[in-house]
Design goal:
By secondary structure, this protein is α/β, with parallel strands linked by helices. It has helices spanning about 20-30, 50-55, 75-80, 110-130, 180-190, 210-220, 240-250, 270-280, 320-335, 350-355, and strands at about 10-15, 35, 40-45, 60-70, 95-105, 135, 145-150, 155-160, 200, 260-265, 285-290, 305-310, 340-345, 360-365, 370-380. An eight-stranded mixed β-sheet has the order 2-3-1-4-8-7-5-6. The chain has a seven-stranded mixed β-sheet with strand order 11-10-9-12-13-15-14. The structure holds S-adenosylmethionine (SAM). S-adenosylmethionine binds near residues 177 and 293.
Length: about 400
């Protein structure tokens, strides 16, 4: 890429509230932590570094490489300053570019107008220099420029991801109320599971949790399944380096797990979809699927994590019917899961109370706009009591 050796600030977006998981991932890849906010984490690196970030991050949505930062009070000022950026160093004049934005400024009410101003500034610069300009439109599959404009502060980024990184490429069949892959990964990270016990996932739906668990257990890079990232469309994209990174990632990935992953659902369609999704992800051989009521899930002797994501009445299922299901989860934990740590991910605090066990930890998440909790239950072996009085979320 044009300035592949130039270090710049990189803002990495994530689903609301999982920035702490993202921050530790970024640090364990050896990148510095510059700042952390509810919507993402800032680090720094070169454009080439964005390939590693796109390949390895499990909880990120987009990797944005900062090109220019300035103040602008009006759309005209935005246009003038955007036109000064050397876009031709990054974007092919014969290519395709789209502009996206996050805008919160008093001067304009419609962010599409800001996008248009940026796009015009880029196109006019190309016309002046080459008598030709890249095509432009709404597709985010080639070069993407992202504008952040808050009050008078503007930042122009190259979006090196395009489609959010949650779109790993394996979930061909989503079923009802699927968890986003990035969120599923953050939930598993919060449980501490990394192939250090069995992973049991009743109510698996399209299999997102079980598939993400398998990928975490294998240390398989989540980006390895995807065949398009926006950095591939930038001028100077180092294809050989990308192939080398991919090769290294597949060599680093383990071939097998030490423990079992079991995924079940009452719906045969869901299990079928989950199995196909797992096959696409290349982890089908590591997950034992079966069709059954969650209560009948075979929990092997030993220890590990039992994680359920029941419907919570927002998008599927009726609250009254679900009350019985939640009470049943409490019984299932008590009767069948001793020695394990139980987890329920839900966005409905009243239903969660029906589980009837005291939760040891409550971790806040957001599923889109819905505030959710991951509730942790310690399910002791032997005589220690697990059925303590009810507690709220
Ligand atoms: C919210 S969805 C799970 C979504 C899943 N985490 C995903 O990412 O696709 C809840 C699932 O619970 C299943 N389910 C509902 N009642 C059940 C029961 N009694 N036993 C087993 N599965 C059940 C539904 O078929 C549905 O697939």
């Amino acid at each position: 890429m044009a300035s592949e050796m130039e270090k710049n600030r990189i803002f990495i977006t994530c689903p609301k509230g999982i920035q702490t998981s993202l921050a530790s991932e970024i640090q364990s890849l050896g990148f510095p932590l510059l700042s952390e906010s509810f919507s993402g984490v800032e680090t720094e690196g070169t454009l080439d570094d964005t390939m590693r970030l796109n390949l390895y991050l499990r909880t990120a949505h987009r990797v944005l490489y900062l090109l220019s930062e300035f103040t602008a009070k009006t759309p005209d000022e935005l246009y003038a300053k955007t036109a000064k950026v050397p876009w031709e160093d990054y974007i092919y004049e014969t290519g395709y570019v789209s502009v996206t934005s996050t805008v919160d400024t008093q001067t304009i009410t419609d962010s599409r107008f800001a996008n248009l101003k940026c796009k015009d500034a880029i196109a006019d610069r190309f016309m002046k220099k080459f008598g030709h300009r890249p095509d432009s439109g709404a597709e985010r599959d080639q070069a993407v420029v992202h504008l952040y404009w808050k009050d008078e502060e503007c930042r122009l980024y190259i979006d090196t991801s395009g489609d959010p990184l949650s779109k790993r490429g394996y979930r061909k069949i989503p079923m009802a109320a699927p968890l986003q892959e990035t969120l599923a990964s953050a939930i598993i990270t919060a449980t501490g599971w990394h192939d250090n016990g069995n992973f049991i996932n009743p109510m698996c739906g399209s299999g997102t949790l079980a598939i993400e668990a398998a990928m975490i257990g294998l240390e398989k890079a989540p980006g390895i399944l995807r065949n398009n990232f926006c950095f591939m469309h930038l001028r100077g994209f180092d294809k050989a380096l990308w192939e080398k990174l991919r090769m290294e990632a597949s060599q680093l990935s383990k071939k097998n797990l030490q423990n079992r992953i079991i995924a079940t659902d009452i719906s045969s369609k869901a299990v079928d979809a989950a199995r196909k999704n797992a096959m696409t992800a290349g982890v089908e051989h590591l997950i034992e699927f079966s069709i059954c009521d969650f209560k009948d899930t075979a929990v092997p002797e030993g220890s590990g994590t039992v994680l359920l994501n029941p419907g919570y009445g927002e998008r599927m299922g009726e609250i009254d019917q679900l009350a019985g299901t939640y009470a049943g989860i409490g019984d299932f934990f008590k009767q069948r899961c001793r020695g394990y740590t139980g987890y329920v991910f839900t966005g409905n605090p009243s239903l969660a109370k029906k589980i009837g066990l005291r939760s040891k930890r409550k971790i806040q998440f957001f599923n889109g706009t819905i505030e959710c909790r991951l509730l942790e239950y310690e399910l002791y072996e032997g005589t220690r009591k697990i059925n303590k009085p009810q507690s709220a979320l």
